[in-house]
């Protein structure tokens, strides 16, 4: 079981991260070692878990150009669908703002997006259950792991994990006392067999009484399948970030520039000392019911904290540098390749918004410009999504 957990963690630079300083621009190299969760994916954790001295098999920058099909855009709506809000067309400066930024967020650039509809809140357990009951869909976390597929995402020659480690499962955060080395996220992430959207902490847990909480343990394929079933699609990174601003200029957070730690709280995040003591001063130790905090100016809830949200774009840490800097970028669809030095063997998508595990001492990813890579077939207990829909012209 431990073997599984390490491969996932190493490749998964996904979660909350802030580098070694909360007030300076950290390098992405450093970031990959100080994320509050692994950014690559299950591939790395599963193949390195057998030893805490697991070799770091991916250190050089590389590109993975074998990408899945582009997102489906099935339906254009003539009127506002239930549960969605109108995001009007507009321009905004996309990318780094504030003191907690990362190199991947630079340079800032002018972007224009057309109008679209967006879910007012993250997809809930009840909504995802309706999809599963209607289709029989089985999520990535609920499926046994295929070693033939997994080994394509790790360094050549990586040994196969024991069969018991290839059972269904996902990554679950476990608070740890007396942590002094925040660069070692293996201390608080645990590969848990049979953890999935119905069992967020493992096989003995459940989501009973949490129908209105955001669904978690969702991988890209799961989110895309739900969106297609619902007649929607996943947002581009640009659409998501523009929507998070609420139409305001130069804001650090979806609610403006008020410090995240100032009460009353504006989102569900980690209060206390990460990763040992969550005081839950905001009322929630893990996920909160959607809509528990006030919406931004577009009427969107939980665009910061609660769960990370999967977008349609491939993660390319140098993508912004490839964009024109002296003109507006119209409706960008993201990079045409996945490029992430933390795990050059796997394909990653962009996730946005941070989660209930973000904390200023170690994670400032509730900022609108923050983003992380998520390995395509990886899920965690703080990753979910919301959908968008096109407007009929």
From TrEMBL:
Residues 82-388 form the Sulfatase-modifying factor enzyme-like domain. Pfam families: FGE-sulfatase. GO terms for molecular function: formylglycine-generating oxidase activity. InterPro entries: CTDL_fold (IPR016187), Sulfatase_Mod_Factor_Kinase (IPR051043), SUMF_dom (IPR005532), SUMF_sf (IPR042095). SUPFAM superfamilies: C-type lectin-like. It comes from the Bacteria. This is Sulfatase-modifying factor enzyme-like domain-containing protein.
